[in-house]
Amino acid sequence: MVINSGTDTLSYPVQQPVHQVTGKEMGEKRALPVTLLSGFLGSGKTTLLEHILKSPDHGLRIAVIVNDMSRLNIDATLITHHHVTQTKEKLIQLQNGCICCTLRGDLLAELARLAQKNDVQYVVIESTGISEPMQVAETFTTEFGAVFDQEELGELSEEDKAVLVDVKKNGLHTMARLDTTVTVLDAFNIYANLDTADFLSDRYGDDIVPEDERTISDLLVDQIEFADVLIINKTDMIDPPRLQRIKHLLTLLNPSAKVLESKYSKVDVREIISTGRFNFLKAASGAGWLRSLHEMTMQKTGNGDRMAPKPETLEYGINNFVYSARRPFNPRKLWDLLHDKFILLQHGDGEEGDDGDEENDDEEDDENEGDDDDDEEENEIVIDPDEALQNKRNHPAFSSLLRSKGFFWLATRAFQSGEWSQAGAILTISCGGKWFAEEDKANWPEDEDVRKSIENDFDGRWGDRRQEIVMIGEGIDTDRVTEVFDQCLLNDEEMKQWEDIMEGDGSREDKEDAMMDIWEDGFEGWNEAEEEDEHMH
C-alpha cells in the first residue's frame, strides 16, 4: 500500500491507542500486540532485546522473534519465562521494481500459534538492519491475501500452511497488531551514515538482492521518519553538544516521535512496550518535511513574498527551510546544478516490456547506434559517488543539507510533477503524478478538507504547479539555497515562450515536443502509468 499524505484514505480501520495489557486479559481472545525494533547492525537492537527480557517493569510474558538467536546473550531461565523464536525476513522484488521487505510465512505462522495458544501477552520482533519499518508495518495492516501467494505458502510446512490458511479468512490484523515501532540509533555513527555514498550492497553484500538499489542514508531516514520511538543509543560516546544536535535533528525529521537517550540500550521498557503509540496513517504522514509543508505561511524574503515555514530559532545549529517558486525549472540548468553534487537515483520508465517489442527495438537500435551513443554520452555523465559526495561537502549551498523532500516542476514536463527525496548525498527523483490542475475535479479525493487543501495550492492560471521542497540541515544558508535554485528557473523570456506553447493549439504531446525542442532535458523519462496511480502532493 502507498499512502499519499493528505489525499488517500486507508482501506482498514485506523488503530486507536490501547490500554496496557495485563495478565487478567490472558484468557481473552485478542490480536497480539507487537513492538517492532528497527535499526542498523551494531546500533544496539539485540542489547535492547536482552534488556526487555530481563526487565521486571513490564510484567508480561513476552515472545521475542529474532533473526539470529546466537547473538542473544540470554540464559535458560529467561527462555523459560519468555518465548524466543528465530526466523528471517524475506526481501522480494515487486512488479514495479521496488524492493519490499515483508515478514516470512514462518514468522506469521508463529504469530498465529502464539495468538491461538493464548499463553503469551506480547510480541517483540527484531527486524533486520536492512528493513524499512513502513514496509514491515504494512504486513500487519493489509489484508492477508495481499501478502502471500501460493508460491510463498509452498515453502512452509503443512502445519504452518494450515495455520495461515485459517488466519487468511479473517485477515492478518485479527492475529496481531502493531503497538509500537522503535528505531535504535547509534549516536556515534548517525552523521556518518547520513553523509555517505554507500549503498546497502556496499556494506551488506550477499544479504542484499542484486536489484536492491537502496542506500545507507535513505534507509536511515526511513527508519527515523516512521518510528513512534527513537532511541539514541551509545550516548556515552559523544559529547553533550553533539547529543543536543542529534536530538534536535531527530525532532525535525520526526516531530511526533518520542526520543529516548540510552547507554547500552538501557531504557524504561514501559516507553517501548504496550504504549499504544502506533497509528499507520499518523506514522506514514508524520515526517518532519511533511509537517513543514502543512505549517507554511506567507513570509517576506529577500526575493519577495514566498510560502515558507513559520520562522523558528536556529537551535543547536539545526534548521529547516522550504524552497518554493511558481515557475518551472529549466531542466538543463537543474541538471547542471545537481548531477555532480548528489548521487542521482532516477526512477523513470521501467525496463520491462513485451519481448516482441524488445526485438524490434533492438533492430532499430542497431540502425541508429551511432546517434544513440552520442546522445547518451551527452546526457549521461557518470560521476564517481565519492567525488559527488566531496562536491556536496564543498558546495556552499548543499554542504549543510541533510534531508530534503517535496516535489518540483520541470518546463519540459508541464503535466506531471516530479517527486524529490534526498538523504545525505543521495537524491532520488521520480514521477509524482499529474498536477491536480490537469485532473478533472470529479476525480479529486472526496474528502472536503482534502479538496480545500488542494484548492489552496492553486495560484493563478497554472493551478497547483510549483516548486516546493522542504530542507533540513545544519545551519542551512536559506538565501544561498534560494539563489542557486532560482537561477535554474525559467527567466521572463523563457516563461513567455512556455506560456505561449501551453495556451496554443495542439495536443499535450505536441506541446511537450515543442518544449523539448527549446529546453534540453537529460533526466530519465517518467512512466505515464505512474501518474495514473496516485498524486504525491
Automatic annotation (TrEMBL):
SMART domains: CobW_C (SM00833). Gene3D superfamilies: P-loop containing nucleotide triphosphate hydrolases (3.40.50.300). It comes from the Eukaryota. Pfam families: cobW (PF02492), CobW_C (PF07683). Residues 351-378 have a biased composition (Acidic residues). Residues 347-378 are annotated as: Disordered. Residues 318-489 form the CobW C-terminal domain. SUPFAM superfamilies: Hypothetical protein YjiA, C-terminal domain (SSF90002), P-loop containing nucleoside triphosphate hydrolases (SSF52540). InterPro entries: CobW-like_C, CobW/HypB/UreG_nucleotide-bd, P-loop_NTPase, Zn_Chap_cDPG_Synth. PANTHER family: COBW DOMAIN-CONTAINING PROTEIN DDB_G0274527 (PTHR43603), ZINC-REGULATED GTPASE METALLOPROTEIN ACTIVATOR 1 (PTHR43603:SF1). This is CobW C-terminal domain-containing protein.
